[in-house]
Write a structure and sequence with these properties.
heterodimer; A: 358 residues; mainly alpha; two-stranded antiparallel sheet; 3% strand; globular; B: 506 residues; Rossmann fold; six-stranded mixed β-sheet; 21 strands; 32% helix; binds adenosine-5'-triphosphate; binds magnesium ion
């Protein structure tokens, strides 16, 4: 009989082996799913996981998708370490895009190197402010930030629709609910000529590097780790939980807001109701898949971006429903959390009763 | 007739240490057998292997002549081996009967359980009400719950890992009566303790461990506490000096400190007032659960008080948090080592940063960690307090109970605080190391610091304190000079706090 036995210390090997294992399991069960939908499973997996890596164009697209995932994922992972559960990054992403976009539109037609940094600042401020709502409610009234931040996503979506249908609507846009296209000064500089890969990729990498430094070398990162592992010891050490809630929500909100500006001023180029593409939610998977470690988040961001790009072409080529791709991404998190059991437990073959020589 | 339990060549290796090195010994039927050894000698590791919660790397065991290799605690219990851990695994919000049921196989946790608990507790003089909530029980009563849970399974071997470090003298006496009764019924008992007088009183045989190896066997009844201690550490015990400094100016003033209980089963603090002077050690005695935890938390800053209620060197600090108080010179070593004083899965270096980052400059002003300095500080603590560990990069969890205690207390002492508050300073620490910690506290006081020690160990308080007070029902008695107190007077001050302790109004 098979049996789970707790380990004395968490297995270091398993901590790093379970994410690849989860990817592998997702592949296997994804293939079963695709076969059940009547698609050629091998071909589908090839389209999703291999083909995007072959052409320079889709490699650049990979960066376009990975950048916001990493940017948001790194922010979220800081809070997740301390037990601060910001589930509403999607909302902060939207408000960031709206705030940054509105700032850009306000100075429409004015060229200048300062325009984009100003938009970024406005976007970060927007995301920060949106995240402060659940943060302050938690520290003042002990509300659950998971629920509050999640509900605010839908509020943010409505704000976006209302604004692009009203004050921010393109005056020459035949009443379509869209803003004007951003002016040149208000769009992201392109990193790779001829593609949509923009400098946001570099920003995301830099943020991951900074987060790594904070976790390894700074009292702030240290306090987050202590808080997550031993809340009572954190209080004894003098790390304030309120401050950690504010800081984690604030940082992850600002980063999500920044990702929102990058998306609006980068690949999309204007404010549209369809701007949010689920990055804020997918980044939750990215954070866990990356083991809440900035380096891991960068890798995980790449993998999840792959399923986005590959998923799109699979929809086109194999007529897969979009929901199948979401199921596929969900499976990844499911298997990762499942495989996590082995970090703290090991599987043992149960032998006959107690009295048996070793 | 063969012995009940025979252990042969049991070996267990952890990264960097050989915790048990070919350990062999035997426990006879109906024998109370002591397991002695310094902190980190490998006692807990050994009994965990006997109880099946750890697997030996090599070696074999026989129970009543039959090969015995438990794969998990369940198997050990079925084979008739029970273990009472020092730290209980009980749920406060459940009743005694519910807690007991959780530890039993489902077929035994039937409806008649409460009745059986009553029977067993009456038969062995372990007063226990199955309907009471565990949260309302004293530490001694909680231990009785664990013991009754073991006894319900009719064990042939009962293992107790440091059972008395948290008990009052009355509770210890009661426990010993129960253990002797069990012995007379033929149950064997394997008993771990650092209290050598108790061992001489209770045990008929002893196996001594040092550095994971068996270094001796003896009959403790024919040894003195001193000779036992010397067998354990393999050298003579250093004599300790009494505190000689005259008290100086007041460093810590507490006036009218009151705090509501902040958790179920907690104790409210009521109007606590005292002065603590440089060069003195104030001992605070009392049965656990009478507000000591809350008192220490109020002093550390984990719970804020009225700002004026606590003053350090004259300046009010009641509203400040732990970090600020530490910076001003008030350091605290709380009772619970794992999860409170230390983060179990973090290294000793990181645990040094936890509280010493300001005073020992383990982080820059901007908050950048100085990992090199932190490792040096942790190594200095390890060296000065003789903490047995394979290195400061190892997790706090991997240290033996007593060694972690030495580290936690040492970490605060080495920050040279103006005022040190320490709870159970030598809990689970072996005789040699306990003497070293007490000496370090005295040295601090002589150097001008003020020390407040909260402990349940009256002997310890009588040895180190210059003044003495008792905590009961959230109140603190007026401190009195130790020198003018007789043992009888101390007994009177503690008065009426034996057995079941009331959380009720004082
Ligand atoms: N899980 C573990 N991982 C690594 N090392 C461990 C682990 N458990 C115990 N050790 C080491 O094994 C040695 C023996 O520890 P053990 O807990 O058995 O000591 P002990 O005799 O019970 O001491 P004490 O009196 O302080 O409780 C110690 O050096 C300890 O650091
Ligand atoms: Mg031990």
């Amino acid at each position: 009989m098979l049996r789970l036995e707790p380990r004395k210390e968490p297995s270091r090997l398993m901590v790093w082996a379970t994410p690849p294992a989860a990817v592998l399991l997702t592949l296997v069960f994804g293939m079963v799913l695709f076969a059940a939908l009547g698609k050629d499973p091998l071909r589908t997996v090839e389209i999703i996981f291999v083909e995007p890596l072959l052409s320079p164009f889709s490699r650049a697209e990979l960066l376009v998708k990975a950048a916001p995932l990493v940017l948001i994922g790194v922010g979220l992972s800081l809070g997740f370490r301390a037990g601060v559960w910001n589930i509403g990054a999607e909302g902060q992403f939207i408000i960031g895009a709206v705030a940054g976009g509105a700032a850009g539109l306000a100075v429409y037609d004015t060229p200048g190197l300062w325009v984009l940094p100003m938009m970024c600042a406005a976007g970060m401020l927007g995301g920060f402010a949106w995240a402060m709502i659940p943060a302050i409610l938690r520290i003042r009234f002990n509300t659950n930030e998971i629920l509050v931040s999640l509900m605010l996503v839908y509020v943010a979506e409505l704000w976006l629709s209302a604004l692009v249908g009203g004050p921010l609507r393109d005056p020459e846009g035949f009443n379509f609910p869209e803003s004007r296209l951003f002016h040149d000064s208000a769009t992201m500089p392109i990193l790779i000529e001829g593609t949509r890969a923009h400098v946001g990729v570099l920003v995301a990498l830099a943020v991951a590097g900074l987060a790594w430094l904070a976790l390894q070398r700074h009292v702030f990162g240290f306090s987050l780790k202590v808080m997550g592992q031993a809340p009572r010891a954190a209080r004894f050490a003098g790390f304030s939980e309120r401050r950690a809630v504010l800081a984690c929500m604030g940082v992850s909100g600002a980063l999500a807001g920044l990702a929102g500006v990058f998306e609006a001023a980068g690949p999309v180029g204007q404010l549209v109701p369809g701007l949010p593409a689920g990055y804020g939610f997918t980044a939750i998977i990215v954070a866990f898949l990356g083991r809440l470690h900035p380096g891991g988040v960068v890798l995980a961001g790449g993998v999840m971006a792959l399923t986005y790009i590959g998923g799109e072409s699979a929809q086109l080529e194999m007529q897969l429903p979009a929901a199948a791709i979401s199921v596929f991404q969900g499976m990844l998190l499911f298997f990762l959390l499942g495989a996590d059991v082995f970090v703290n437990h090991r599987l043992r073959l149960r032998r006959a009763p107690a009295t048996e020589s070793a | 007739m063969t012995a009940l339990l025979e252990v042969e060549g049991l070996t267990k290796r952890f990264p960097g240490v050989l915790a048990n090195d070919a350990v062999s010994f035997a426990v006879e039927r109906g024998q109370i057998h002591a397991l002695l050894g310094e902190n980190g000698a490998g006692k807990s590791t050994l009994v965990k292997m006997i109880y099946g919660s750890m697997r030996p790397d090599a070696g074999a065991m026989r129970l009543e002549g039959q090969p015995y290799a438990p794969t998990d605690p369940g198997a050990a219990r079925r084979a008739g081996v029970g273990l009472v851990f020092q730290h209980f695994s009980l749920f406060d919000a459940l009743t005694v009967a519910e807690n007991v049921a959780l530890g039993l196989p489902p077929e035994e946790a039937g409806a008649d359980l409460a009745e059986r608990i009553r029977k067993v507790s009456a038969a062995y003089g372990l007063p226990l009400d199955p309907e009471r909530r565990v949260g309302e029980l004293s530490v001694g009563a909680r231990q009785r719950v664990e013991i009754v849970r073991c006894l319900l399974q009719r064990p042939r071997l009962l293992i107790m890992d440091e059972p008395t470090s948290v008990l009052t003298p009355q509770e210890v006496g009661q426990l010993f009566r129960t253990l002797r009764q069990l012995r007379d019924e033929g149950v064997s008992i394997l008993y771990i303790s650092h209290k050598l007088d108790e061992i001489r009183e209770l045990c008929e045989a002893a196996t001594i461990l040092r550095h994971g190896r068996v270094t001796g066997r003896c009959d403790p009844r024919s040894e003195s506490a001193r000779s036992l201690a010397e067998m354990m550490i393999g050298q003579e015990l250093a004599a300790t000096r009494p505190l000689s400094a005259a008290p100086g100016e007041v460093r810590l003033t507490v006036r009218g400190l009151s705090l509501a209980a902040d958790r179920p089963f907690g104790t409210a603090l009521r109007d606590i007032s005292f002065d603590l002077r440089a060069g003195e050690i104030l001992g605070v005695a009392g049965v656990a659960g009478n507000g000591q935890d809350e008192f220490v938390e109020a002093l550390s800053g984990e719970r804020r008080a009225q700002h004026e209620a606590i003053r350090l060197d004259g300046a009010p600090i009641g509203a400040f948090g732990p970090d600020r108080r530490r910076r001003l010179g008030l350091c605290v070593a709380p009772e619970e080592r794992l999860g409170h004083a230390a983060v179990p899965d973090m290294s000793l270096t990181e645990n040094a940063i936890l509280t010493a980052r300001r005073r020992a400059r383990l982080a820059s002003r901007g908050g950048v960690l100085r990992l090199g300095a932190a490792a040096r500080f942790a190594r200095a603590v390890v060296e000065r307090f003789d903490v047995r560990t394979a290195g400061v990069e190892h997790a706090a969890r991997s240290l033996s109970g007593g060694n972690l205690q030495k580290f936690v207390v040492g970490r605060e002492i080495m920050q040279n605080p103006a005022v040190l508050v320490v709870a159970q300073p030598t809990w689970g620490v072996d005789a040699g190391a306990a003497a070293a910690i007490r000496q370090a506290l005295r040295d601090m006081a002589e150097a001008g610091a003020a020390v407040l020690a909260v402990s349940q160990d009256l002997d310890e308080l009588m040895e180190i304190s210059t003044r003495f007070a008792v905590m009961a029902g959230g109140r603190l008695s007026a401190p009195r000079p130790m020198a003018e107190l007789s043992v009888e007077e101390i007994g009177r001050m503690m008065g009426g706090t034996g057995g079941e302790v009331a959380h009720a109004e004082a």
